[in-house]
Design a protein that fits this description.
The chain is mostly beta strands. The chain is 0% helix and 41% strand. It is built from no helices and twelve strands. The chain has a five-stranded antiparallel beta sheet, with no helix packed on it. Strands 7-6-9 form a three-stranded antiparallel beta sheet, with no helix packed on it. It has a two-stranded antiparallel ribbon with strand order 1-12. Strand 2 and strand 3 form a beta hairpin.
Length: 160
């Protein structure tokens, strides 16, 4: 099943089915867009090890993570830890600094739901920043990204 596509501004709104089928990882992480609208987007994220390893915030969106498999720890800029277990989630408001880490023994599978500000453009490297205000690229060495290696197994295999 293909990800739900973003509607063009001239199209009438309509419900769209999407799938959470995402490959498990042998190394690294994958972020897969599964659905989006003008003001909201949903990704699956699977981490074999690590997570988003450097403190950062998003200046243009509120977002949350919901753990479907595994467990994660979320840290703020002062090092305070919140442990998130399977079927729990965390809400991260626009401008809140955080990093997360896979603290389980297997793949961490989360749904990431982001919501923007109606009518304002979203994204761009200048919107994901470190505490010093400089951009932090998601797939950078600075963010401890390693080359992703997909497993042959899939989360939500039967979802199509």
């Amino acid at each position: 099943m293909q990800p739900a596509r973003k509607l063009e501004p001239t199209e009438a709104p309509q419900a769209q089915k999407f799938s959470l089928r995402t490959p498990y990882m042998k190394q690294g992480r994958i972020t897969q867009l599964v659905a989006e609208t003008e003001n909201m987007w949903i990704h699956t994220k699977i981490n074999y090890e690590g997570g988003e390893n450097e403190i950062h915030c998003h200046l243009d969106e509120d977002h949350s993570f919901i753990v479907l498999e595994g467990r994660m720890s979320v840290f703020d800029e002062k090092g305070n830890e919140q442990k998130i277990e399977k079927y729990q989630g965390i809400m991260i408001p626009k401008g809140a600094y955080y990093r997360y880490l896979n603290t389980g023994k297997e793949n961490l599978v989360v749904i990431r739901i982001g919501a923007g500000i109606k009518g304002k453009p979203q994204g761009g490297v200048e919107m994901r920043v470190r505490p010093d205000g400089k951009p932090l690229l998601a797939d950078s060495e600075e963010n401890k990204t390693v080359p992703p290696v997909e497993d042959t197994r899939y989360f939500a295999e039967s979802a199509g």
